[in-house]
Design goal:
There is one protein chain. Helix 3 runs antiparallel to helix 4. By secondary structure, the chain is mostly helical. It has a domain of 75 residues: MazG-like (Helix Hairpins, Orthogonal Bundle), CATH 1.10.287.1080.
Length: 125
């Protein structure tokens, strides 16, 4: 059974490859904006309804959008899903010095303040 992240990434390469799906191959970042908005709204609705089964499905649909955009970007020579993951990893570690460094945050409010301060420093750099 193939069901890990690497297999999923490869699925998008196949879908957009020479023998892939004509619809998937035709898509661009711009053509997918409507889909991304719709899937995000559907996820929000599932969260608001406290419907975990629908949330699971809608999270998959949002992930589909992320992977499709990353595949298109890879084909365009812009970046890959690995670059997206590395960027997120770096951001999370940088903005959480109260977890991964020596800064202290004793409450959610303090943690948010640290996050905002690190984001401000990051943007200023």
């Amino acid at each position: 059974m193939k069901n890990n992240f690497a297999d999923l990434v490869e699925t998008f390469a196949v879908l957009r490859g020479p023998n892939g799906c004509p619809w998937d191959k035709k898509q661009t970042h711009e053509s997918l904006i409507k889909n991304l908005r719709e899937e995000t709204e559907e996820l929000i609705a599932a969260i608001e309804k406290k419907d975990p089964e629908n949330m699971k499905e809608e999270l998959g649909d949002v992930l589909l959008q992320v992977l499709m955009h990353a595949q298109i970007a890879k084909e365009e020579g812009l970046f890959s899903i690995e670059d997206v993951i590395q960027g997120l990893y770096d951001k999370l570690h940088y903005r959480h010095p109260h977890v991964f460094g020596d800064v202290k945050a004793k409450s959610a409010e303090e943690a948010l303040a640290v996050w905002k301060e690190m984001k401000k420093k990051e943007r200023g750099a």
